[in-house]
Amino acid sequence: MKTWTIGEADAGTRLDAWLARQPEIGSRGRARWALERGKIFLNGEDLHFQHGATRLSAGDEVGYWEDRPGSARTPSRDVVSARTALRIVHEDAAIVAVNKLPGWLVEPLPGEEGSEVTLLDLLRDHLRAASRRPFVVHRIDRDTSGLVLFALTPAARDGLKRQFERRTPERLYVAVVQGRVVPASGTWRDHLVWDRERLIQRRAHVHEERAREAVARYRVLEQHEGGAVVEVSLVTGKRNQIRVQAGLRGYPLVGERLYTFGYRPAPGGRLELDRQALHAVTLGFHHPATGRRLQLHAPLPADLQGLIDRLRN
To answer: 31, 224, 262, 272: most buried, per Cβ within 10 A?
Structure first.
């Protein structure tokens, strides 16, 4: 078994985030996978998936038993142990909306099916007794929390996808960013391209063939000395869009590791969060079966609300 002793510099860090930085683990997905399979120990006690948010203390001993006997459990048992992570906001015969917790993939990454439990797995488990099958309509990033919509029939899936293609759904996010946002409201408009080698979104060069327009409207809800709480309304829905557009303008999201573009906060002014501070708070659309307008809401999660409280103080 590999063991580590936590030092002062890592005190207060979430266990799953700390595990992801260790070469033996290497990612949040692998950390969650190891926790789900009982491979992680803290001070001699074995842990499970729900312990990923545990805050470490100096002197804690973390153990990783990669080849622990009996740890190669079946996916169905992993899903059962993770059922409490499924937070359904709305469900009927045609659609289901979920308030996704941070750290969860909406669906498996290409080529990594079965490597970790995803939101789609949890929904399939939830719907199994009713013999219904969920279809992915749209996605949000692993560490973004909030509303995700699924269809329960092919007709509902197609109808919802047409709405997203026409850019008619209302998609509101709350973000907490570093620095001062000027002006206090406006529109972000960029041409972005997905870099297939670096697996990041970047600003496109002039006339770049694969460039796609990215548009979002924003307004500052609260501006404080150390950062701002911003409401962002997506017009387009490009991968990582809010994260990259905020970073390009010099106020990256708190907790952002990828799209910081060299931002350096003032000494003593850095805000910390174990993920990017982004939450899909409102989703409005027309019900694909009835045509009725629905507007769903997901309250801010505790970590994001706590960050805003610290910012106010």
So the answer is: 31
Where the chain has pLDDT below 50, the residues are 73-75
User: Which of 49, 103, 106 is closest to 73 using CA atoms?
Assistant: 49
Domains of the chain, earliest start first: 2-64 (3.10.290.10), 75-163 (3.30.2350.10), 171-280+304-312 (3.30.2350.10)
Whether 141 sits among the annotated catalytic residues: the reply is yes
CA atoms within 13 A on the CB side of 235: 13
What phi, psi does 8 have (nearest 5°)?
Answer: -60, -35
- pTM as predicted: 0.76
In this prediction, residue 209 carries a pLDDT of 85
Q: Of 241, 272, 238, which Cα lies nearest the Cα of 259?
A: 241
Contact predicate 65/1, CB 8 Å: yes
| pLDDT at res. 38 | 78
DSSP secondary-structure letter at 180?
A: -
What one-character DSSP code corresponds to residue 252?
P
Q: Terminus-to-terminus CA distance in the chain, angstroms?
A: 43
Active-site residue (options: 78, 141, 190, 274): 141
Tokens encoding 145: 């929390």
**What's the rounded Cα separation, in Å, for the pair 156 and 60?**
49
Q: What is the pLDDT of residue 265?
A: 76
Judge contact between 9 and 48, C-beta under 8 A: no
Give the H or E element holding residue 200. strand 200-203
